[in-house]
Amino acid sequence: MKKITVLCGLAVLAACSSPESNDADAEGDASAAPSAVSAMAGSYEIVTDDGTISSFLAEDGSYIESMDGDIVSMGSWREEGGKTCFDPTTDEPPMCYTIGDIGDDGTFTATPDEGDPITVKKVD
After folding, report:
1. Contact 88, 5 (CB under 8 A)
2. pLDDT for 44-81, tens place per residue?
3. Largest Cα–Cα distance in the chain?
4. CB under 8 Å, gap of 24 or more: what pairs does 69-75 form?
5. What is the model's pLDDT at position 95?
6. Gap between the Cα atoms of 70 and 27, Å rounded
7. Domains along the chain?
8. What distance in Å separates the CA atoms of residue 18 and residue 7, rounded to the nearest whole number?
9. Alpha helix ranges (H) inside the chain
10. Which residues contact 24 (CB under 8 A, 6 or more apart)?
């Protein structure tokens, strides 16, 4: 379960490490720029030794992860200290990830504070 939560966190980090700029941003028009949460929100896929995890990060800061149609983790996510952190609704401790560069195919590596890096892909 801990590994699954970490994988979701990586997906979020990758999404937020690819900021888009536009003229409104340059002019300081905050209303035209998406918030960090809305920029990271979306669906992600994480392939593990145990199978493929589908992760959905909502704009309201909540997340849900499923495998084979079964929910495996849910809770809240946030950015903190340059990392993406996930806080599950279970007794599991929060997990934070550092996100690597996003490849042309949309994949990136998420590295947890403890444990092995994972490969994540944004699917929407």
Report:
1. yes
2. 999 888 899 999 999 999 999 999 999 999 999 998 88
3. 47
4. 72/1, 72/4, 73/1, 73/4, 73/5, 73/8, 75/5
5. 94
6. 45
7. 2-122 (2.40.128)
8. 18
9. 2-16, 23-26, 36-40
10. 31, 32, 33
